[in-house]
Q: What sequence folds into this?
């Protein structure tokens, strides 16, 4: 620890006291990240992707019957409403607004719900785009070997669409990591909330917020490495260079 | 025997197929020729309901027998049934890019026909050997040339053991030097007694391999008959003009 302290004090404006604050606040912030920010991100992303897939499917399937039409209209309204309103407002409606109609949700749950709905709407457009960019010939090839629409989707179109959707969805995921800091405003003691607590106590705003920023950056950097590996794995069949 | 009766197909106000009848015997190779825009590909796609005709009927008399009448809008179940009587080879191959050659061939028999894995695998391997791709069975489509991909496409069609294989300009997207290997594969298939309906511009192939040649123009059959007769001694003026254009290239 002393070595680290000495090392930090070589930086400009860095006194021994300040170095102490940096070191002692690191663990609470990281813990906020590990216990709240990252689980929040992952759970919301998974739920969001399930919503996204469902919504995308409803919106690409050729018009079927009345029920489908109803779902089509509902999902269109959902996507439009979520994309047309700020995430922070959605979060406040769920956490501060719902209690007025008798539904009180804990902070973490509120955050998961609003982030899932948000990712679901944006993700559905990404997934829909990926699905409709698969050439029509792939559908036809599925049909001519005797597959139904959904069977072709599951076996042929979906696996190909996933590969196309990975880069934009990784973007969504990384944005979500950062947007999870908004949960501090509904009292989730995640990474940035911890940073705010330390800063309020020590008045070292610059120092502590830069430290928080660096931790976010580190998490996102590790995630982008993961993304690169995933992309490589999913395109192993496409070995010709573009 | 497959009888196709009075097929009509229009897109919006444009009538593309104006009442085409065709009977194909078991083991027969029928080639459709005609100028571009004549409706020959659309006609082919009507036979497996990739395009749904507004009128007409199709009967498969061999077991499992099946017939469909398009006068009423067909149900999904009927369309699925119709498609399971035929297989198709596409101009752009349309192989599944995320599956190897072997997996492409196995997909239908395994997923649709629910045949046992060991049997399907053995059959698929044999078929790929048969089309000359023994050493390529674990390659992905992106690692194969156009001609090789199309031969995988042909193997994929045969694997379904359909009553008829439909070929939609199977060599049109290929480099000239790769056309031969695909035509050779199709020729071998014809000799084995596979029933085939082929849309193509390869006139020499049609003369050598087809039992019957059909000339379609403006959505109707203008002339049909034995291959040599239609190609070498066309009776109709439009057939003569078309063949002259294509042979003088």
A:
């Amino acid at each position: 620890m002393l070595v680290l302290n000495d090392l930090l004090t070589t930086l400009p404006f860095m006194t021994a006291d300040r170095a102490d604050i940096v070191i002692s606040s690191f663990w609470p912030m990281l813990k906020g990240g590990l216990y709240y920010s990252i689980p929040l991100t992952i759970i919301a992303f998974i739920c969001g992707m399930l919503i996204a897939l469902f919504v995308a499917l409803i919106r690409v399937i050729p018009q079927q019957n009345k029920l489908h039409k109803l779902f089509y209209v509902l999902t269109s309204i959902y996507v439009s409403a979520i994309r047309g309103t700020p995430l922070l407002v959605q979060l406040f409606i769920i956490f501060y607004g719902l209690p007025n109609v008798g539904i009180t949700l804990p902070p973490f749950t509120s955050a998961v719900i609003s982030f899932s709905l948000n990712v679901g709407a944006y993700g559905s457009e990404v997934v829909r785009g990926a699905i409709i960019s698969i050439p029509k010939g792939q559908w036809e090839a599925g049909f001519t070997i005797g597959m139904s629409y959904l069977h072709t989707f599951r076996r042929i179109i979906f696996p190909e669409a996933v590969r196309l959707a990975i880069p934009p969805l990784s973007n969504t995921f990384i944005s979500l990591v950062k947007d999870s800091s908004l949960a501090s405003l509904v009292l989730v003691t995640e990474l940035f909330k911890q940073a705010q607590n330390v800063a309020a106590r020590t008045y070292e705003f610059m120092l502590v917020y830069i430290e928080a920023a660096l931790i976010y950056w580190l998490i996102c950097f590790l995630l982008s490495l993961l993304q690169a590996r995933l992309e490589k794995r999913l395109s192993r069949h496409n070995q010709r260079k573009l | 025997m497959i009888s196709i009766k009075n097929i009509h197909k229009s897109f919006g106000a444009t009538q593309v197929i104006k009442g085409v009848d065709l009977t194909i015997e078991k083991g027969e190779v029928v080639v459709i020729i005609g100028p571009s825009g004549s409706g020959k590909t659309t006609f082919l796609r009507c036979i497996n309901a990739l395009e749904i005709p507004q009128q007409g009927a199709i009967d498969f008399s061999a077991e499992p027998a099946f017939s469909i009448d398009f006068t009423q809008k067909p149900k999904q179940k009927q369309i699925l049934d119709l498609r399971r009587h035929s297989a198709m080879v596409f101009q752009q191959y349309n192989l599944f890019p995320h599956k190897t050659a072997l997996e492409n061939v196995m997909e239908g028999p395994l997923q649709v026909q629910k045949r046992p894995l060991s049997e399907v695998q053995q059959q698929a391997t044999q078929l790929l050997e048969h089309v000359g791709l023994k050493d390529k069975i674990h390659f992905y489509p992106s690692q194969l040339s156009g001609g090789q991909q199309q031969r995988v496409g042909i193997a994929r069609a045969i694997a379904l053991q359909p009553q008829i294989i439909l070929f939609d300009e199977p060599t049109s997207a290929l480099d000239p030097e790769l056309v031969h290997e695909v035509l050779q594969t199709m020729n071998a298939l014809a000799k084995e007694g596979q029933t085939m309906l082929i849309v193509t511009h390869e006139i020499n192939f049609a003369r050598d391999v087809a039992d019957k040649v059909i000339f379609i123009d403006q959505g109707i059959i203008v002339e049909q008959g034995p291959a040599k007769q239609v190609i070498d001694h066309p009776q109709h003026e439009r057939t003569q003009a078309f063949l002259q254009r294509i042979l003088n290239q």
Remarks:
- The two ends of chain B are 36 Å apart (CA to CA).
